[in-house]
Amino acid sequence: MGKFNILVLALAMAGASTVASAAEGSGVYLRGEVGNSTLHVDGDSAVDTAMNGWLGYSFNSLIGVEAHYGSLGKDSDQGSTIEMNATGIGLRLKHEFAGGMYYVAGRAGMERIESEFTDGDFGIQLTEEEDNPYAGLGMGYNVNKNFAVTGYWDTRTVPFFFGDERVDTLTIGGEYRF
């Protein structure tokens, strides 16, 4: 066998091993999360229940893409209500440790946030939508190869009619991998 053929064979074997290692930890996953959102407005804050659903695909054990939809909460005060929902897509980076039992993760992407303001006293209803980035940090415990218990903190900017405000979300959840 000539040197060129040996080089081609070595490159093919290296490429095959890269593809095989990339397949480890790959696949579709679903994650449901519930927790609290804190809306920060002019030095004041309001807390409400947040719920999110995530659909993702891991290319390998390190990187994946995910899409989500969720409620960032609702706040009512003196006949007025504001409710916020988010739909987005982004990347998730994950690093497993302790023999794969635990992991830390970071996620970031873009989402469309819809804020709806209702004033029952005056019959006013306003809706505002805006595309903004989000970012989050999380950790998880792999119960088995298909299920993990997770905890995440996310932060984002939301439209608030007279300017943008910040919402921080702290959730716990469960992730099922197919």
Task: List descriptors.
about 180 residues; 8 strands; elongated; mainly beta; 1 helix; eight-stranded antiparallel barrel
In short:
The chain has 178 residues and is mainly beta. It has one helix at residues 3-23, and strands at residues 27-41, 44-58, 63-77, 80-97, 102-119, 124-142, 147-159, 164-177. An eight-stranded antiparallel beta barrel has the order 1-2-3-4-5-6-7-8.
Q: Any overview of this molecule?
A:
With 178 residues, the chain is mainly beta. Helix content is 12%, strand content 71%. It has one helix spanning 3-23, and strands at 27-41, 44-58, 63-77, 80-97, 102-119, 124-142, 147-159, 164-177. Strands 1-2-3-4-5-6-7-8 form an 8-stranded antiparallel beta barrel. Strand 3 (63-77) and strand 4 form a beta hairpin.
